[in-house]
DUF3570 domain-containing protein
Amino acid sequence: MSYSDTKQHNQHKKTNLKTALSMAAGALLGTGAIVHEAKAEILTDWQFDSAFLYYSEAERVTAAEIIVSANKTFANDEVLNVKLTIDSLTGASANGAVVQAQAQTFTRPSGEGQYVSQAGNTPLDDTFKDTRVQLNAQWTQPLAENYTASIGGHLSKEFDYLSLGINGNLALDFYKKNSTISLGFSHFQDRYTPIGGIPKPYASMLIGDSNSPSWHEDFAATRIASGDNKITSDVLVGFTQVINRRMITQFNYSYSMVRGYLTDPFKIVSVLNQAGTAQDYIYEHRPDERKKQSVFAQTKYHFDQGLLNSVLDFSYRYMWDDWQINSHTLDSTLHMPLASRFGKASYLQPHIRYYQQSAAGFYRPYTFVEQVSNGSSEENFISADYRIGAMTAVTLGLKYGFSLNNGNDFSVRLEYYRQMPSNAGFDQPSELANLTVYPVVQAVIFQLSYSFL
């Protein structure tokens, strides 16, 4: 799980449960919509949802995010949703190099200046900083009896990244509206212009006297372009079924094709001698295409007796791709109503999530001098990015929410995240035997949400 996995914003509970789950097939692609079932004449005002999220990894990345979402329902059950997201990221990010028993010196991605990683520490680039502004708009309307369509647009801008996208979804209700089939799509065009430019795959990181007359010329020789593009196309098919008055299920299949620049320009790979001492650092190289598939199943069950009238939400997702990564995700919440607080009903919602992932076929925590001399061709991919390595992760959290006297809703969420990378079968040189090659990543997630009319 990455930082983006924590960006969850709960919609107001006026949503019809079955319709919401059926349209969630589109939501996974960014095409989700809120379809209210109350009478049109009383749903002509704007409804606002807002959230503040704080995410902090121990000694690494810290993120702060503000989300404001607005819904407008019109007389013919047409719904407009507009959502603005602003987030800021600071801190340090692992650059891909492996830990060493001695201090290591690296050049910053811009080529201006250097930084030092102390002996025994995972090398972290402390220049990580970015601000993102994202705007999504979605229009949903009935097309005919039992047919609902949704179309939307996406704009996201960071310092070095621009993303533009469109999406759409079509849902068909049948069997007395107890069953729904939906088909969603999305298409994104992204432009990446990283500071310092696009590194040449397998090129050695330039390290030395940055004040030398030839420094800028030598640094430029390790670059191949100022920027590059990425295209993402997704298709999702979903089926939702009401089992009875207390249970509803959903099943999705998704296919994603990503083409273009998929390498991380800020990641490097350590080149070791046989003893395990770093001799060089080379820029990683990933394929320019990735095909991903996934299946998803979700069940919601309402305990109307016992368990405090609770609602159990359980889901499972299996993903596989042609990078040889496969993953399993189990996610569960239990919505438990409490006695009245602040004049209105309140609830507790514990959350647990388990994630397990295999490593990409070209993942290497480090490489060796002999392998680099024989493996720098266009077809030999390599990356030491722990995010595509073998890992397990667990999230534990608790959410508390209540309604105010004016009908508005407030909630607070606190979660703990622990990511545990593991060795995917690589032999470890003697000099790394007493060092932490696969460090645990821990994070705290805190969120405040407020919904109002």
Q: What stands out?
A: DSSP finds three helices and 23 strands in the chain. Residues 3-452 form a domain with the Porin fold (CATH 2.40.160.40). The two ends are 33 Å apart (CA to CA). The CA atoms of residues 55 and 233 lie 29 Å apart.
